[in-house]
Amino acid sequence: FTHNFFTSHEGLLLEYEEALTRKDGLDNKWYDCSSHTIWIGNRTRNIEGAHVEFASGIQNPIGIKLGPDLEGGDLINLINKLNPNNDRGKLILIARFGIEHIEKKLSEMIHIVQREGKKVLWICDPMHGNTIIRNKYKTRVYNDIINELKYFFEIHRMNKTIPGGIHIEYSSEHVTECLGGPDNIKESDLEKNYKTACDPRLNINQCIDLIFKVSELIKETDKKTSKTNL
Hints:
Elements lengths: L7 E3 L3 H6 L1 E3 L6 E3 L4 E4 L9 H6 L6 E5 L5 H11 L8 E5 L6 H15 L4 E4 L6 E4 L2 E4 L1 H18 L3 E4 L37 H26 L1
């Protein structure tokens, strides 16, 4: 048996990405061989910046992290630069608005993209927009993550667009880095098994619980969509 296996990471270190970029001998176009898909972070999506310029010159699928400060006109300018031919499958818009902003900002961005006729894939990152500091630890609240996912699916259903995927950070270990969830992790628990060197991750129990909840959201969306189409 053979399986398709695809990799993706943020193209943050341009020296690394450039060193692994090659021109294909068949189509004479440039590809970043460090990964199948490269994404641009919320802090590096300046249209005049080096990260966007690099991404505009390669043929890989490109993701863009969308934060709450992004304006609709700036998003369209980014789309035009990174996908000038409006090719299907080229651009992935990764919503990371946070629980406070997703309802307003995601609807706004979907409407703008639809109005301009742009072909994109929508993904939800429910973690990066919900980062807080508690007891000097960088953390996230599990319920905020779940609720942002609920908004993501419902807003797409209302707009008749496709919720194309999710982007989460998790560990297979029983870390104590995100609050709440099936283990009911409290602020006082964070120091017990906080191992991350960067961002707080869901632990294995939180991740499994999230997977089941996402499965229910997919079923619920399909059910509501079927009723609407009757």
